[in-house]
Design goal:
Elements: E1 7-8, E2 11-16, E3 25-30, E4 33-39, E5 45-49, E6 63-65, E7 68-70, E8 77-78, E9 84-86, E10 101-107, E11 110-114, E12 138-142, H1 146-152, H2 158-163, E13 165-173, E14 179-188, H3 193-200, E15 205-213, E16 217-222, E17 228-236, E18 241-249, H4 257-261, H5 263-278, H6 281-284, H7 300-311, E19 314-315
The protein binds FE2/S2 (inorganic) cluster and fe (ii) ion (FE2).
FE2/S2 (inorganic) cluster binds next to loops.
């Protein structure tokens, strides 16, 4: 069993929705703890402790029945809320038995769990985007701790070195304890192949807003084109590697049938271009150990991010 980290309370992406069909179950290890994700016949998802609270049998050997996971050993049934809904006659009543559960939500074709007693904020919305004008999720395994990816957007100094962008100015703001945002005015330095495409499209300057929620959910909004991207980060393998779920969205609902036909290729192209922008970070930050080291005045926004990170409410609370 891996070590359990004192992770921020947040929504974490655990898989792509289509990976779990009706009446299927999927064992999940999250932050060193064992869970069982299941989808009832009604299509709703639940995530309960993997081992039965009766005698510890592995519920992954069970079946989904009546929108519950049924333990094969003595047939106790647990619903998505962790409530025992059925058990053979005994001195206990089902209503007296509860097992551990986490809140589950599906959005943008992804399954999220809330790490905490109960959700403290909502999964962020794309700005001005009407469903379903967002892409299929791209799932990418990174050899970087998720905090390295998180810190990145606030590390304005690295934009020039790694991404061929000049940061003319920026402002940092916050809506609540779970949120921090940064508005960046950015200029293009044409060096890589995709910079030429961006130059060709006349986007030499851009105004980008990044909004972070719970330390692991990042909304990117290009204020000039209206395009959005969403990065949802899942820390795994002892917090040293990360699964990145990446989605992009078009600024407007496609109104004409022609635009609707080319919506999918447009989204795929946008996803490819946006991901190409992020990619140079990944090999550079491999095995990074993010820390507040010897910082300079150029690192002011990174310091703002650390301050935000340190204040994020953690779970479990008693660790
Ligand atoms: S161990 Fe699960 S019902 Fe007995
Ligand atoms: Fe970066």
């Amino acid at each position: 069993m891996t070590e359990q980290f004192f992770l921020p309370q947040s929504w974490y992406p655990i898989c792509v929705s289509r990976e779990i069909k009706k009446k299927q179950l999927k064992p999940i290890v999250f932050n060193g703890t064992d869970w069982l994700l299941f989808r009832g016949g009604d299509g709703k998802l639940g995530m309960v402790s993997r081992f039965c609270p009766h005698m510890g049998n592995d519920l992954a050997n069970g079946k989904v029945k009546d929108n519950c996971i049924a333990c094969p050993l003595h047939d106790w049934h647990f619903n998505a809320k962790g409530e025992c809904k059925k058990m053979p006659p005994s001195n206990l009543k089902p209503s007296q038995v509860l097992t551990g559960r986490l809140f589950v939500e599906e959005k943008y074709g992804l399954v999220f769990i809330f790490w905490g007693e109960k959700p403290l904020f909502e999964i962020p919305q794309f700005t001005g985007i009407v469903n379903p004008a967002y892409s299929m999720p791209l799932v990418h395994q990174l050899q970087n701790p998720y905090l390295a990816v998180g810190l990145n957007g606030f590390d304005t100094w690295h934009f020039c070195n790694v991404h061929n962008r000049t940061v003319f100015s920026y402002t940092v703001f916050s809506q609540n304890i779970f949120h921090i945002g940064i508005n960046l005015e950015i200029g293009l330095i044409v060096r890589r192949w995709y910079d030429y495409i961006i130059k060709f499209l006349g986007l030499l300057k851009s105004n980008i807003q990044l909004d972070y929620y719970g330390g692991n959910l990042i909304m990117v909004h290009n204020k000039m084109t209206g395009h959005c991207a969403f990065l949802a980060l899942l820390p795994n393998e002892g917090n040293e590697t990360t699964t990145l779920y990446f989605i992009v969205a078009l600024p407007k609902e496609s109104r004409t049938s022609f635009l609707r036909i080319i919506e999918k290729p447009r989204l795929s192209f946008l996803r490819f271009m946006s991901f190409s922008f992020l990619k140079p970070d990944f090999p550079i930050q491999k095995n990074m150990r993010p820390m507040k080291g010897i910082l300079t005045t150029e690192d002011a926004s990174a310091v703002d991010f650390w301050t935000y990170w340190d204040k994020l409410p953690r779970y479990p609370m008693n660790k």
